[in-house]
Amino acid sequence: MVKFSLEDSDPYYLTLSEHPKRFDADSPVTNVFFDDTNGQVFTVRSGGVTGVTVNSMDEAKCTSFRMEDKGPIISIKLSLDQKVLAIQRNNEGQSATVEFVNFKDLSPTNVEYSHTCKWKNSKILGFVWPKANEIAFITDHGIELLQVLPEKKQLKTLKSVSFSGAWFSWCAQSNIVVLAGNNGALLQPFYFNNSTIIKLQNGAWFSWCARSNIVVMAGNNGALLQPFYFNNSTIIKLQKLELETSRPVVERDVCMVLVADVTWCAIFRHALTTIAAPGPTEIWLMPLSGSGVNYTHILKTGLMGRFALSVVDDLVAVHHQSSQTSQLFDIMEECKVENNTVIHLPLVPAHSIRPAVVDEQPCPMYSGNWVMFQPDYVIDARRGCLWRLRLTPAALAHNIEKDDIGKIVSCLLRRRGGADVVHHLLAQLVASAQIYLLQLTHAFDQINSVYRQWAEAELARSTAGGAGGGVGVCARGGELRLHNTRCARECCNRTQTIPTLCR
Question: Domain containing 444: what range?
C-alpha cells in the first residue's frame, strides 16, 4: 500500500504545553487539589497555619495565602469571579458543612462564614460553582442550589432536588450534572437554569464538566446515572441514562465531555469475554437530552487496561497507559448510523505524546502519577507539573495510507490551523499528481462540500435578511456541528491555480 507523508511533519500529533506550570509536589505535608472549572491547582501545606498556593496557566488566577488550620481539607475551590473561597473539610462527626472566605484582589479578607446542608445526616459528595454567586452542594440525598451573599456572610437556598445518589459527574461548560443510581446502571442528568433545578429525564458519586455546567450523579451502585443542568440559577433534570444492571459503571469509568458543542456522557465499557481473557475496551459517548443528537457514538480502542480521556480541538484523545500511546477519534466524520449507534475507529494509528523535558531531564510519559482533567489538562502531582495538551494538525498527515488522504483532509477542515496544512498537502499532491490524482480529486470534493454548505447557509441568511459573516454550518450528517468553515473558503481561495496545474 502506497503511503503519503506531509513534508516536514512528524508522527507526534499530541504535545504537552512547552512550559508546564510548576507547583509544590504532593508530599506527606502537602496536598494537591485541582479545580477544572477555573483551571487552578491548589497546594495546601498543613501544620499549625495552613499555607495555600494557587497556580494556573492564567497568571491572573495565581496567588498564595495563609489561613488557620481547622482540619484536613478534601475540596477547595474559588468562585468563578475569584471573590469567594469554598472549603470542604473531612472532620469526624461534623455535619455536612462547607466553609466560605471572602476574597479581595486574590487575597483573603477576615470575613468567614459557613453553611450546612439542608438534609440531616447527608454526606456532601462535592460542590460546584455554576455561576459566580451560586454554589451547588451535591449530596447523597440530592442537590441543593444556593446563592452566595458575601456581603451578608450568608447563603440563600434557591432550589433543591431530592435524589438518592452514589457519585456524580459535572460539566461546567453546559451546566449539567449527572447523578448515578441503581448500582451504576442508571444515570440521571439535571440542568441548572434560572435559579431552578430541572430534571431532564436518577446518584453516590458525581462527575462534572466545567465547560457545559453539567453534573452527572450516580445511584444504585452505578446502575443509574442522572444528569442535571445548571443555568440561570435553575436546576433542570435531564433524561436519565439507564445501563445494563449486570454491567453497572463505577466513578472512574464516567466523565462528562463537550465535543462539537454537544455535551456527552463518556463511559468506558470494559468487555468481559471471559474472566481469564477480558475483551477490549470501548468508549460510549451518550448524548444528553436537549442536545439535538439522538444516537450514541462507540469508540473502538482494541485495547485493554487503564485509560484516560481528553478533548483537543474537538477530537477525542484516548490515552492508554500500558502501551504509552494515545488514539484520536473524530466523531464528526461521516459514518453510517445503525440502531442509533455510530461506530468509530481511530483516525490515525496510535502514537505516543511528544516526549517532554522537565528541569532539563526527560519526563516519564504516561506516568502512573499522571491525572487527566477535562478538557485537556494533564497533572503530575509528584513532579508538580501542570500541562495542557495541544494538537499538531500537520502530524495527522504523516505517514498515512494513500486512501486515507480524503478522510484526513475532511478532518483538517474542522481543526483550528487546518487551512495551512491542507494547502501544503494539496501542493504536495499536485507535485506528484501522477501518483495521487484520485486522492487529489477526493480532497477537493471535501473542500467543495464544506464550501457549498457555507455558501448555502450564507445565501439563506441573506435571503432572510440576517447579517452576513460568522461561521456555523451544521453538517453532522445531520447533527454534529462542522467547525471552521472559513478553512474551506481559505483553501479554495489559496488553491485556485492548482486545478490548472493538474491538467
Answer: 399-502
